[in-house]
Design goal:
It contains 11 helices and 8 strands. It is an alpha/beta fold. The protein has a single domain, classed as Aldolase class I (TIM Barrel, Alpha-Beta Barrel), CATH 3.20.20. α4 links the parallel β4 and β5. α2 runs parallel beside α3 and α5 runs parallel beside α6. It starts with 8 loop residues before the first strand and ends with a helix.
């Protein structure tokens, strides 16, 4: 098995709990972050797509990142830093996140993937504003979002960008990035191709089911790193079931699974996702089964 650096492994995504009036439930947030950290992932990713980051104010994003650091139990925390609309606000958010104590910053591809030269210049200019480790994120909320493998290879070669959250959902495209990753880390977001991507050379995972089932990903990664192919396959299959369970109504479905697992969290979302009584009943049956079988 290859050696993995400190930026490989499981990045557990952090949801944002809301109250009924859709204000952030910061108490629930702190408890949830501590719960996520208790599974000992390699990293936490606060202020991400699953956090509904584009529906949070800058003040809310910074407070969530700060609280994630304070409640992470020492698990390294990454947070998205370039959601603002102008360079001045981007620079401010980068410095504010540094002061909050995050381990590293995440830069979204910002809808620039059809302009590769401009994108390279833009991302390198952001990198020059900080000394923190950097990850890239093909965030589907800002299209076109899929970075060309050649662009990723050029950015990775600078040594400033330690990895990318790949959201292509195509094994052919995943392999193109793996071919140019060098010492950086292609981090997989697609669950059906997760095992294939690991076997092809991907070096970690940043995927939506980590919001409510990080323990499964930690177990799968541990088995993979230690060359336990049978264990890796077993946990991959369990993750596939979890992924199918949350797929409809994410991220309300993930919040409800967290609640069923004992986390003090409501299912409210700002993005409009909600659960019907039938979906709740389906999730209850899944979690009951998963707990009885020792899966969750």
């Amino acid at each position: 098995m290859p050696d993995f650096d400190e930026f490989a492994g499981v990045y557990s995504l952090v949801l944002t709990p809301f109250k009924e009036d859709l204000s952030i439930d910061y108490k629930a947030y702190e408890e949830y972050v501590a719960w996520q950290a208790s599974f000992a992932p390699q990293h936490l990713f606060a202020v991400c797509g699953s956090s509904e980051m584009t529906l949070l104010t800058q003040e809310e994003r910074l407070k969530c990142a700060s609280l994630a650091v304070k409640n992470s139990g020492g698990v390294p925390v990454f947070a998205t830093a370039n959601l603002a609309d102008n360079p001045e606000d981007e620079a401010y958010e980068i410095k504010a996140l540094e002061q909050a104590g995050v381990t590293g910053l995440v830069f979204v591809t910002k809808g620039m993937c059809d302009r590769p030269e401009e994108q390279i210049e833009y991302l390198n200019s952001l990198a020059a504003k900080t000394e923190l480790p950097l990850l890239l994120y093909e965030f589907p909320g800002m299209k076109p979002h899929l970075m060309q493998a050649e662009v990723y290879g050029a950015l990775a070669a600078t040594g400033r960008f330690k990895g990318i959250k790949d959201t292509t959902c195509l094994l052919t495209e995943i392999k193109k990035k793996i071919a140019v990753q060098g010492s950086s880390n292609v981090l997989q977001a697609n669950i059906p191709f997760l095992l294939d991507a690991f076997n092809e050379g991907a070096r970690g995972v940043v995927a939506t089911p980590t919001t409510c089932g990080a323990d499964l990903f930690v177990k799968m990664w541990s088995c993979f790193v230690n060359g336990d192919s049978e264990g890796t396959e077993k946990y991959y299959e369990q993750i596939i079931l979890l992924d199918n369970a949350i797929d409809s109504g994410f991220n309300a479905s993930a919040k409800y699974i967290c609640k069923l697992r004992g986390v003090n969290m409501n299912e409210y979302t700002r993005g409009g996702a909600s659960l019907s009584p039938a979906r709740r009943r389906s999730l209850e049956a899944y979690v009951k089964w998963a707990q009885s079988e020792g899966v969750l």
